[in-house]
Amino acid sequence: MLTCRTVWKKLAPLARASSTVCRQNVRRAGLTNGRIPAQTPAAHMSTGPTGGGGDNHLYVLLVGTVALGGGVYMYQTLKGDQKRYQARIDEIASRQQKPTTEDQATPIQSEPPAVEAADTEAVPQPEPQAAPSPEEPSPPAPDAEVVAPSETTEPPAADEPVVEAPPEEAAEPPAAPVVEEEEPSPPAEPCPAELTEPPPAPVVESEPTAAAESPAAEPAEPQPEVVAESGVDSTPASLKVPSHIPYLLIGGGTASFAAARSIRARDPGARVLIVTDEPDLPYMRPPLSKELWFSDDPSVTETLRFKQWNGKERSIYFQPGSFYITPEELNTAENGGVGVLTSKRVVHMDVRGNKVKLDDDTEISYDKCLIATGGVPRNLQVIERAGEEVMLKTTLFRKIEDFRSLDKVSRNIKSITIIGGGFLGSELACALGRRSNESGLEVIQMYPEKGNMGKVLPEYLSNWTTEKVKKEGVKIISEALVKSVICKDDKLEIQLKDGRLVKTDHIVAAVGLEPNVDLAKSAGLEVDSDFGGYRVNAELQARSNIWVAGDAACFYDIRLGRRRVEHHDHAVVSGRLAGENMTGANKPYWHQSMFWSDLGPDVGYEAIGIVDSSLPTVGVFAKATAKDTPKAATEKSGTGIRSESETEDTATSPVASSSPAPAMVEHKDDYGKGVIFYLRDKVVVGIILWNVFNRMPIARKIIKDGEEHADLNEVAKLFNIHED
Fold first, then answer.
1. What is the model's pLDDT at position 59?
2. How distant, in Å, are the alpha carbons of 24, 343, 375, 394 from that of 43?
3. In the chain, how long is the greatest CA-to-CA distance?
């Protein structure tokens, strides 16, 4: 380039004179003969002496030669620079792939660039002119002058230990190489090549279509291992947890997992972090009180795999460990992913600063946040006041560890008492009652109502259910109000208010759930005084960038008013909707969630809306067949988590059965199958399908329509309960 510049200085006056003369000749020729200016001989375009055209030819030749030489030089320079840049990137990538056993030699590993520097020292002359632009080597081909920076950044790397570079370049060039040396080491370019290999295994983009339906064939063994690794932090949290995450989900239950799937479905490159205080990956809770207790596998507490009523096996986990990526990989994964931070609890939430603080003082900032903290099991005050000795013999059933603990306890004691007659208490009573037939375990269930599920079922059906539970080997104590509990002679004595005394070895308190709203105070979020939980709008928003889903959300139902629901299906649907709205969907919550309960493989029911035994009810029943059982229902749908298939269906125009309906069967001693309607102001607000399955979309539409029905027997025909 210096040679080109010198030649140009010599030829510039000649070029200017030549172009001036050309303009004068053209003007003069136009004045003398304006009609034929194009016929002016090319040789007369110069006023110089005869033969002056030779100088013009020489000028053109020189300029063309210089231009050609400059182009060739520039091409070679850029090509060489690209090769050096690629070699540098390859060297950095290979350095990161070295085994961790060589980490002690990290100061020496910064010297490999010196090998390349030795190769490029053959052209060190242009370095002084290229020094002013040391920050431009990052683009692959910016300019010909990039050659110098790429060379000047590497010799100092080799000379740094000897401290010889600073005297040569007045301390400025060495400073630039240090910056250049640090920045390429953690770039995004080489890392995705290594990090994109694990994500393709789960194929995140395809998960939204079949995420929860396919874990039946997934191995459960890897999950505890993955959880153990992610749950125990042997290194500082700052090295494990990203400081910023676009989508932060607080809570590791069903709602969080449904939201993560929904976010990834709408934003395939999304980076999602789930923070849970449990040591386990996201899992489904219903099997903890249902199918797991009926497993014949002695290692079920470890594998957490179970057979559904239809005989198919599946894992309690929504996805295996390979589906997720580690939290530290979130910021570098090319296609994003879902990370789970286990055994960590969010203790403070700064809504204005868009950040949270964990129990180890780690801070994480976010763009959008979901609160899906669920709830904690309630306990009786008389048990809490009884002292530590009684509490050690009491189980509050909610998590995997509670299932494992109760399974172990039930195998080593002679008597166990379940306090509570709701869904959880009745399911556990049936499960443990069946075990009592084999091990001789005494199972007692007590509750203040007259019968099982007395707050939900009409009295006649509650009494029938109570007899069913008794046949499972459970001793029922109804209308029981606990007055006190003491521990005496290694036995628990439960004193009832009517004077009855019950002695037992262990207590399971199944008396409801308290929504977890610990973050409400620090976050300044509103808690509903009537139903509990965070008050949210129709889009499940508590703030502009904060959503709430699952058991902790108190939402407004356009048909039934403000509600809070504690069921699996609601967690799935509300979590999915919250995830969609976090990605900009802005959809309201229209869904009527359902719930189900199974008293073993032969009796089960599904319900929707407000099912309260204090409301007037109308029941329509028919004779049951072999296919009217939970076992048959799971064989047909292929899944024991029935809401997974039900929530995707819609009923547009239900058609009543064409077969003639027999006389309406009400309040008989045998309730094989039927439909129970719950009324408020003569309008159906709740429906229970008793041993009637895969009809929930019809029930949902009836409640959504909100119409008054003169003959509910005709409405019951929509469910085809009279067909064999």
1. 80
2. 14, 91, 98, 114
3. 137
Structure tokens at 711: 């003959």
How many of the other CB atoms lie within 10 Å of CB of 42? 8
Q: What is the pLDDT of residue 600?
A: 65
pLDDT of residue 604: 85
Report yes or no: 330 and 245 within 8 Å, Cβ to Cβ.
yes
**376, 525, 548, 571 from 528: Cα distances, Å:** 17, 10, 13, 18
Instruction: Note the pLDDT of residue 309.
Output: 66
pLDDT in tens, 426-455: 999 999 998 887 788 999 999 999 999 999
* Residue 374 near residue 552, CB atoms below 8 Å: yes
What is the C-alpha separation between 84 and 138, in angstroms, rounded? 12
Specify whether the CB–CB gap between 442 and 436 falls below 8 A.
yes
Task: Count other Cβ atoms within 10 Å, centred on residue 504.
Answer: 22
**pLDDT at residue number 570:** 93
How many other β-carbons are positioned within 10 Å of the β-carbon of residue 365?
15
Q: Which alpha helices (H) appear in 310-422, and where do they start and end?
A: 381-384, 388-391, 400-410
What are the tokens at 519?
Answer: 């973050």
**Of 390, 459, 393, which is closest to residue 421 (Cα–Cα)?**
459
Task: Give me the pLDDT at residue 44, please.
Answer: 44
Alpha carbon 286 to chain centroid distance? Answer: 20
The gap from C-alpha 123 to its chain's centroid, in whole angstroms, comes to 53
Q: What is the C-alpha to C-alpha distance for residues 602 and 244, in angstroms, rounded to an integer?
A: 50
Among 507, 540, 546, residue whose Cα is nearest residue 523: 546
Crossing angle, helix 53-96 and helix 2-32, to 10 degrees? 140
Alpha helices in 533-669 (DSSP H): 568-582, 630-637, 643-646
- Mapping DSSP to helix (H, G, I), strand (E, B) and coil, where does residue 341 land? strand
Q: Assess contact for 608 and 594: CB atoms under 8 A.
A: yes
Residues of the chain with pLDDT under 70: 1-55, 88, 91-239, 309-310, 600-601, 626-628, 630-670, 724
In contact, 251 and 374? CB cutoff 8 Å:
yes
CA dist 570 and 549 (Å) reads 9
Q: Whole-angstrom distance between the N-terminal and C-terminal Cα of the chain? A: 94
Burial class (CB in 10 A: 0-12, 13-18, 19+), 122: exposed
Kindly report whether the global pTM for this prediction surpasses the value 0.85. Answer: no
Q: Is the Cβ–Cβ distance between 371 and 546 less than 8 Å?
A: yes
pLDDT value at residue 25:
60
Instruction: Find the helix or strand (DSSP H, E) in which 674 lies.
Output: strand 673-680
